[in-house]
Specification:
Layout (H helix, E strand, L loop, with lengths): L1 H9 L1 H8 L6 E11 L5 E12 L2 E6 L13 E4 L4 E8 L2 E4 L1 H8 L3 H11 L6
């Protein structure tokens, strides 16, 4: 998983460039953010509707983290150092999503089929 995190970090500038260019068939822009909880443990969650303005990422929480007083649909600012993955869906295809690709590679054919039915995008090499 660390290799997937590193690949995402290494390509984050490509992500920024891509989201700065409009695309008519873009349906999702998200980053996976590492949140540090009060007890020192971490939780990685996807945050979507990502924008990048004045060298800062902004997004909308996709889940709750009660211990941090964060709720679904909260608007947050995200530090570059806290991003562990990123994804864009354009033309029904996943771009980035390195942790998703890693998990997908380890799924059985039946699991892959069920997964693809739920996400409505394809995963290509």
């Amino acid at each position: 998983m660390e290799a997937a995190f590193q690949q995402a970090r290494d390509t984050l500038d490509s992500f920024v460039q891509a989201i700065g260019t409009p695309h008519p068939n873009r349906t999702l822009v998200a980053v996976k953010v590492r949140f540090v909880l009060p007890d020192g443990s971490t939780q990685d969650l996807w945050v979507d509707q990502i924008t990048f303005r004045e060298n800062v990422f902004h997004g909308i929480m996709g889940d709750d983290i009660p211990t941090l007083k964060l709720s679904i649909d909260d608007k947050i600012t995200i530090a570059r150092k806290d991003i562990v993955d990123w994804m864009i869906v354009e033309d029904g295809k996943l771009i980035g999503g390195y942790t998703i690709r890693l998990v997908f590679q380890h799924m059985s054919p039946a699991q892959k089929e069920r997964f693809l039915e739920t996400v409505h995008y394809s995963i290509e090499d």
